[in-house]
Amino acid sequence: MLIINWVIKTVNLLCALALAAVFLCSHFPPESLPYISVAGLLAPFLIIVNVFFALFWVIRLKPFALYSILALAAGWSQLGHAFALGGGEKVSEADTLRVVSYNVHGFNYKDKDAKESPAEKIAREVARYAPDVVCFQEYVRGKCDMSAYRYSYVQPHGGGNDAVFSKYPIVGTGNLDFPRTQNNAVYADIRLPEGRVVRVYSVHLQSLGISADEVNELTSLSSDQLKDRAKGLLGRLNTGFVRQQSQVEALRASIDASPYPCIVAGDFNNTPFSYAFLTIAGDDLTDAFSQAGFGFGRTFRAIKLYPLRIDFILADEQTFRPAKFSTLRSDASDHNGITALLVLVPVAGDGKTASEDEKP
How far, in Å, CA of 120 to CA of 253, rounded? Predict the structure, then answer.
């Protein structure tokens, strides 16, 4: 019994230290903490384990609960990114903006039981929510019927990786070409019916160079095979995270320079417990899922064993209040699409709201 108790305490202590390290490392660039930043992928698991240990020791009235409690407290502001309890609110559709973001996998995701094409499925699923703005990643021109949207901006070269479709006039556009990669971001400045202009980014950050099959096969490998596979995966993940660093810093600089309040939607290829997410969100963008979603919010459906949320809709907190958030659960892509209903609120102080003279 003493041995079992010692093992439990040791595992608890290691998990508490690991979680605290994950929260801390997310504030540092991956280049300064090579390989360690990859641990952010384990954050949802470590949070669940530490909640379990905290309850286990509290029920037994043991002070050992403090280790997990302190670890959870170290990232208190980030816990809502793992599991949301918002559930949404009832609002009038007036003065709202419905946004959909979807990595569509080039509209070529294979499903042997499919009765309709991926493009048809995605178009039908998106139409069900009647969004005002749609952001696609891995978009291919001409494959999906988006005729309901009068205005659009698609990446002007490279086959059209990212795209923004809008029911409202687009008065300005631009793109961010990240170096040494096919990943990128585009933005469209959209004039809303009440006259305000907002900048909407569709973002696809550096892919991590691993396939879902590689991850799903881990449970069937021998110990030697698992060791070799894990080593290779770790190296590719670290390379991807390091490349993301310069991309998110460029994106953040663009957001800071924007004359308009911003919405950033897309596939970040990283979790909320990462330098990438925290850099993009900054102090002015709020995560729609954390405010109005419910559950784990899993978006990368191709990995079956783990609830990875790597797709996001972030909105300027002075201009928008997330009221509803939903996941578009479809087998038309390796990602689930996401949608948020954003309520327009008055901008306080000197927020990024275009005056009449500044509007194009």
Answer: 37
